[in-house]
Write a structure and sequence with these properties.
It is a single chain. This protein is of the alpha+beta class. The protein is built from three helices and three strands; from the N terminus they run E-E-H-H-E-H. The protein has a three-stranded antiparallel β-sheet. The chain is globular and about 45 Å long. It starts with 5 loop residues before the first strand and ends with a helix. The model has no long low-confidence stretch (mean pLDDT 92).
């Protein structure tokens, strides 16, 4: 499965996210956001995990932790969430889950 960097930027005051679509609306029908811990960042985290894994259950269980690690801390003007860091985080989380079982 191909997973690319997620690029977040502002254009005319609007949040623009490249590399991911909002396939799953859970928290924020208004769309993606970043730079704080609210509903827009939660949906961005959820959809990043869904895109990277294709696993709705994994995304649902882990998106809040992912949000705090990668999305909430992005500067207001935006930034890049690197695909290799996302995939490394997912692999580590999957290992931790197996160890707890």
């Amino acid at each position: 499965m191909q997973f690319d960097d997620v690029i977040c930027r502002r254009e005319a005051g609007s949040a623009i996210v490249e590399g991911i679509t909002q396939e799953w609306v859970w928290h924020s029908p208004a769309g993606f956001e970043w730079g704080y811990g609210g509903s827009g960042p939660a949906d961005l985290a959820l959809n990043i995990l869904l895109s990277a894994t294709g696993d709705r259950d994994f995304a649902a269980k882990n998106h809040q932790d992912f949000k705090w690690r990668f999305v909430a801390g992005l500067p207001a003007e935006g930034g890049v969430i690197a695909s290799n860091e996302v995939l490394d985080w997912i692999a580590q989380r999957q290992i931790e889950t197996r160890v707890r079982m």
